Amino acid sequence: MKKLVFIAAAATLLAGTVVAQESDGRNATTGMVGGAATGAILGGPVGAGVGAVVGATLGGALTPPPPEVVTYVQQQPAPPSVVVQQPVVVGKSIPETVVLTPIPESPNYAFAVVNEQRVIVEPKSRTVVQVIN
To answer: Whole-prediction pTM value?
Structure first.
């Protein structure tokens, strides 16, 4: 029974993350509300608190960069590409060995070229927020 509860919680949190990602700049708030609701259903008041924190973190981490950041990254000369074994996907962090190039006008974002792809990263967590093909 416990397995079923954990699987349901994980599926619901993932669904909440997708909804949070599609919101318009309110990702952390949407993630927090969705996580709290899921946590309350599965774990009562304590679950609501844990779900709110997890939902806010996941929702906030996936905020897509503004168009001017994407344009900046596309127009910059490409630094040497770094090869990593893991796939580079939105929501996952990149290894510490990858050197990030800061974006001067947007300190909340940095970029790198990983596996021949430009990626925009949240520098504090090193989480990929967009992959530019």
So the answer is: 0.56
